[in-house]
Design brief:
- It contains nine helices and two strands, in the order ααββααααααα.
- The chain has a two-stranded antiparallel sheet.
- A hairpin with a 2-residue loop joins β1 and β2.
- α4 crosses α6 and α7 packs parallel to α9.
- The termini are far apart.
- The relative contact order is 0.09.
């Protein structure tokens, strides 16, 4: 057990090549199945899984209820703390999957590899129609938001926009999406 811990510590601190972890790990990040990258297959499987969870299970309904109003959910008899812990656990597990895929794609561990992705993820979720005030949103809308942010990122790189201005532009996109969300919330 101690040697596994040391190996993982070396993986995260020294950034040695991931090929030492085996071909299956590298295949997860750089492999193809039916001409489609494995990362896409993993993403599609997770989208389908969480679409079913969010729309067809009690947990999904409870998550939307707590997101809409914690107080109302508590009055309805839901264990709000347990639901929030479950959501945080799912978020952590999904972040771990994303980290594994990114590490496998880079073929090396780099603690700075995911810097800046938090702004992209917030922008994708807001553009996809999720309300920052909670209780409204969808998995498929988030996927659409991810595609839009991906196209925006690619376009900014192709136009050779500096990384600083890329962040500023994405920040304005988030502000516009939030303003549209708030304006739509007032009309309802």
């Amino acid at each position: 057990m101690l040697s596994i811990g040391r190996g993982l510590t070396m993986l995260w601190t020294n950034g040695f090549p991931i090929t030492d972890l085996g071909p299956a790990f590298g295949f997860m990040g750089a492999g193809f199945c039916l001409g489609v990258p494995m990362a896409v297959w993993i993403g599609m499987a997770l989208v389908l899984l969480f679409q079913v969870i969010s729309r067809h299970t009690l947990l999904g309904r409870y998550i939307y209820a707590v997101g809409g109003s914690e107080r109302a959910a508590a009055y309805a008899g839901l264990d709000v703390d347990r639901i929030k812990i479950c959501v945080y656990m799912l978020g952590g597990a999904l972040a771990a999957v994303a980290g594994l895929i990114l590490t496998a794609r880079l073929d090396a561990a780099d603690p700075k590899a995911g810097l800046g992705y938090e702004l992209d993820s917030i922008a994708a979720v807001v553009i996809g129609g999720t309300s920052l005030s909670g209780g409204r949103g969808s998995i498929l809308g988030t996927v659409l938001g991810c595609l839009i942010i991906g196209v925006l990122n690619n376009g900014l790189v192709l136009l050779e926009v500096s990384p600083f201005w890329q962040q500023v532009i994405k920040g304005f996109v988030i502000l516009i999406a939030v303003a549209v969300d708030k304006a739509g919330g007032r009309k309802s």
